[in-house]
């Protein structure tokens, strides 16, 4: 009738599992695409259910860490853009450092799908200050699904970022993290409790209105939304308006997402008041980028909003008050 | 059996050789995956390779020696992540290093913890001389706990959610892990357990969730689409929770029922393969009508020692009556796999005989009839009767070939494969 052939010792089991960690990353998305849809799943390193808290911490090497998150829509409406992002974003780190916009960036990547119909609706990496962030990026699964109803589960990603991140930049120095969301559709009106339970594992019992989670998120992050001008819904004014109603001037329409890296870097540079737009564009030329036209166009509205005083209109719009600078901090 | 899904079940009390048959089925490249559909870490399916490596498969599928063959643990399996780690280490030590990459587990499968095991030990000790032949792995306690506390039963999927995991583990330790835990209200078993802390168990289960591939119920459908699959049963039909001889049973459905429902659910069909030895065995206590101590001495059992909890390995003559009962209980099989045929050829005059009939004390023929429903009192009466009947044992044919014909006629099922030794090379595919 069988037997207990193998040791069930708690401590040796822990040791055995621990010895297996640290395996090398592989081309996750490609390997998944060759399998049945029922087998599609989030890579272990990006599973929000296993993530608990994503931390950005200071260290001796990086005493003033600054958290930056880039989370992009991986659904079908984005076409080939997610793959472009996967190839372009690894350059972001170097770009930030080269011109000294930030001394110690820590970058986290993630992917957004549609929790109502996708196998892998949310993927979240770690904040990293070295090439491990490339591994996370490489492990993001480009599901390419989506529901076709012009909504994706951005709100779920916002919930995760609001409730499952902890950052020394904020906790020690009162400087919020940066969160760049990239996508071409709208969010759902509520963070659904059932999805939070299933996908993240929190014991949440009630749906959370989108505006509530946005408010909560913005206490921790300076949030930007980048809409691709070239994607399927990119030129749809409803979608741009939707995001403007949440993030005001912080919505950036970018005609060519191949320039995403430079756009994010310059946005941070503007926000840190390290540069004005003209200087930033010069920097791009300095380091050999030919994307100044597209980046300049995308960031012109944002740059002009920096130079004017905060008005009651922009307060209502919800975005402009968050002009970062060095003054008004938590 | 070419290119078909195959369900492998044992028509006796376990140990007939399912493991070696599953290994053989995977060897020719026809079967692309092994699905376990019942039992848990107490399974012990021994496989020996042609180059002499040996592994006792408990949770990994017995096709794991064949490169690339994955194992899926279905929702009806009880998963022990603690024993799983040890089993993986042994497989690695004999050159099979990618076992976790090839393992998927249904998120609904129940988890067996060290506290279940401790409760199992306490309960068996409290039974004194009246043991049930448990393997001591906590399988029954896992099933019992899930029935008693359905909301707090721990599943594989829970291991991905630290808060849920912590809550359930705390409740579990509270109920099962205290040193004055009582298996029954009137039979306290104090001081027998030394349970680990919640935090230590939590750590292992978190690492487990980070190592294995946890999938939903749709996964097995994908496996079935991709190619023919082997469903590897655990234990034997005569140990079935409802059809076995109560209380000497396992808390698991050991018939083809679980596998058949998985196959049907995804719109597929499968061939049912029933495994028997040329003699009938039982590991641990409970009825074994044809038991013969002289056979136990004659037929060495290299991989089945005396277990501290389940007791000795026991041997009897081929029991056609018991196997017919098993066939009826599982709803029949399409073909037989017969193992240890070499024993018929080599043991000569001292070879095991065949039992085709039971007689009562007053000499009347008596046939055990399988249950129609879930009536454990009835099964207990059956077990009781089995200890008083006399098996009529006659001499078996002298050659393996004749023996296979005879057993096929006795059970009215064709023999599809005969095994003459532990390795895949010792298997013979039969005509028909």
What's the Cα radius of gyration of chain A? 20 Å
Rg of chain B from C-alpha positions?
21 Å
CATH class of chain A: Alpha Beta
> How would you classify the quaternary structure?
heterodimer
The domain count of chain A comes to: 1
| CATH fold assignment of the largest domain in chain B | Adenylosuccinate Synthetase, Chain A, domain 1
Helical content of chain B (DSSP H or I, runs of 4+): 25-40%
Overall geometric form of chain B = globular
Distance between the amino and carboxyl termini of chain A: 65 Å
Strand neighbour order, sheet with most strands of chain A: 4-3-2-7-11-12
Largest sheet of chain A: 6 strands, mixed
Tally of discrete structural domains of chain B: 2
Number of DSSP strand runs of chain B: 20
CATH homologous superfamily grouping of chain A: von Willebrand factor, type A domain
Main β-sheet of chain B: number of strands, strand sense, barrel status? 10 strands, mixed
Offer a few descriptive terms:
heterodimer, A: 330 residues, alpha/beta, 6-stranded mixed sheet, B: 432 residues, Adenylosuccinate Synthetase, Chain A, domain 1, 4-stranded mixed sheet, 13 helices, VWFA domain-containing protein (chain A), cytoplasm (chain B)
Textual characterization of the structure:
The complex is a heterodimer of chains A (330) and B (432). Chain A has 15 helices and 12 strands. Chain A has 330 residues and is an alpha/beta fold. Chain A has a single domain (8-260), classed as Rossmann fold (3-Layer(aba) Sandwich), CATH 3.40.50.410. In chain A, helix 7 (154-163) packs across helix 10. By secondary structure, chain B is of the alpha/beta class. Chain B folds into 2 domains: 5-105 and 217-429, Adenylosuccinate Synthetase, subunit A, domain 1 (Adenylosuccinate Synthetase, Chain A, domain 1, 3-Layer(aba) Sandwich), CATH 3.40.440; 117-153 and 160-208, no CATH class. In chain B, 32% of the residues lie in helices and 19% in strands. In chain B, helix 3 (114-126) crosses helix 4 (139-148) and helix 5 packs across helix 6 (198-211). Chain B is globular and about 60 Å long. The model of chain B is unreliable at 185-191 (pLDDT under 50). At the A-B interface, helix 1 of A face helix 2, helix 5, helix 6 and helix 7 of B. Chain A: It comes from Stackebrandtia endophytica.
């Amino acid at each position: 009738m069988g037997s207990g052939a193998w040791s069930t010792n708690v401590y040796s089991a822990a040791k055995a599992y621990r010895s297996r960690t640290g395996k090398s990353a592989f081309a996750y998305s490609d390997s998944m695409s060759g399998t049945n849809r029922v087998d599609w799943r989030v890579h272990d390193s990006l599973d929000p259910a296993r993530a608990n808290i994503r931390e950005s911490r200071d260290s001796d090497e990086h005493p003033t860490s600054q958290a930056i998150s880039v989370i992009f829509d991986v659904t079908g409406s984005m076409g080939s853009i997610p793959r472009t992002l996967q190839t372009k974003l690894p350059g972001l780190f170097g770009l930030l450092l080269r011109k000294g916009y930030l001394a110690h960036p820590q970058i986290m990547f993630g992917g957004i799908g549609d929790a109502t119909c996708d196998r892998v609706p949310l993927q979240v990496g770690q904040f990293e200050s070295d090439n491990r962030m490339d591994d996370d990026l490489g492990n993001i699964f480009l599901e390419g699904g989506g529901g076709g109803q012009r909504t994706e589960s951005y709100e779920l990603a916002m919930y995760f970022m609001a409730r499952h991140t902890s950052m020394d930049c904020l906790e020690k120095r009162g400087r919020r993290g940066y969160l760049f969301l990239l996508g071409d559709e709208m969010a759902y009106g509520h963070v659904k409790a059932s999805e939070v339970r299933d996908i993240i594992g929190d014991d949440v019992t009630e749906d959370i209105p989108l505006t509530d989670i946005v408010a909560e998120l913005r206490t921790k992050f300076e949030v930007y939304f980048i809409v691709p001008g070239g994607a399927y819904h990119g030129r749809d004014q409803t979608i741009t308006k939707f995001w403007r109603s949440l993030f005001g001037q912080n919505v950036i329409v970018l005609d060519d997402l191949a320039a995403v890296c430079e756009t994010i870097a310059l946005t941070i540079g503007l926000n840190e008041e390290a540069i004005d737009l003209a200087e930033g564009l010069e920097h791009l030329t300095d380091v050999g980028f030919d994307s100044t036209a597209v980046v300049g166009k995308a960031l012109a509205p944002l740059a002009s909003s920096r130079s004017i005083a905060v008005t009651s209109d922009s307060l209502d719009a919800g975005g402009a008050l968050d002009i970062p600078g060095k003054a008004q901090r938590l | 059996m070419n290119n078909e899904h195959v369900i492998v079940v044992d028509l006796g009390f376990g140990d007939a050789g399912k493991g070696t048959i599953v290994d053989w089925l995977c060897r020719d490249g026809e079967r692309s995956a092994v699905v376990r559909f019942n039992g848990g870490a107490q399974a012990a399916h021994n496989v020996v390779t042609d180059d002499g490596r040996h592994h006792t498969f408990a949770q990994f599928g017995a096709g794991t020696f064949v490169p690339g063959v994955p194992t899926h643990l279905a929702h009806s399996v009880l998963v022990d992540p603690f024993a799983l780690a040890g089993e993986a280490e042994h497989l690695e030590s004999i050159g099979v290093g990618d076992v976790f990459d090839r393992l998927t587990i249904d998120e609904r499968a129940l988890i067996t913890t060290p506290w279940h095991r401790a409760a199992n030990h306490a309960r068996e000790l409290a039974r004194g001389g009246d043991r049930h032949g448990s393997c001591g792995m906590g399988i029954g306690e896992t099933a019992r706990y899930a029935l008693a506390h359905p909301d707090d039963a721990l599943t594989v999927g829970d291991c991905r959610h630290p808060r849920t995991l912590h809550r359930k583990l705390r409740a579990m330790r509270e109920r099962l892990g205290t040193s004055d835990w009582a298996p029954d209200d009137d039979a306290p078993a104090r001081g027998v357990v030394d349970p680990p802390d919640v935090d230590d168990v939590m750590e292992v289960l978190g690492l487990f969730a980070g190592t294995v591939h946890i999938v939903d119920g749709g996964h097995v459908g994908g496996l079935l689409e991709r190619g023919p699959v082997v469903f590897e049963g655990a234990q034997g039909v005569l140990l079935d929770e409802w059809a076995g001889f109560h209380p000497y049973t396992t808390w698991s459905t050991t018939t083809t029922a679980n596998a058949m429902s998985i196959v049907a659910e995804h719109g597929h069909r499968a061939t049912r393969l029933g495994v028997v030895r040329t003699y009938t065995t039982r590991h641990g206590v409970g009825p074994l009508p044809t038991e013969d101590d002289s056979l136990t001495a004659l037929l060495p059992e290299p991989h089945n020692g005396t277990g501290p909890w389940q007791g000795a390995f026991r041997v009897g003559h081929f029991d056609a009556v018991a196997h017919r009962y098993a066939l009826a209980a599982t709803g029949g099989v399409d073909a037989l796999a017969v193992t240890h045929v070499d024993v018929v050829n080599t043991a000569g005059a001292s070879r095991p005989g065949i039992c085709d009939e039971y007689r009562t004390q007053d000499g009347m023929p008596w046939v055990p009839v399988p249950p129609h429903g879930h009536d454990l009192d009835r099964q207990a009466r059956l077990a009781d009767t089995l200890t008083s009947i006399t098996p009529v044992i006659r001499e078996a044919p002298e050659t393996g070939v004749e023996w296979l014909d005879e057993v096929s006629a006795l059970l009215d099922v064709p023999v599809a494969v005969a095994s003459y030794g532990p390795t895949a090379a010792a298997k013979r595919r039969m005509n028909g």
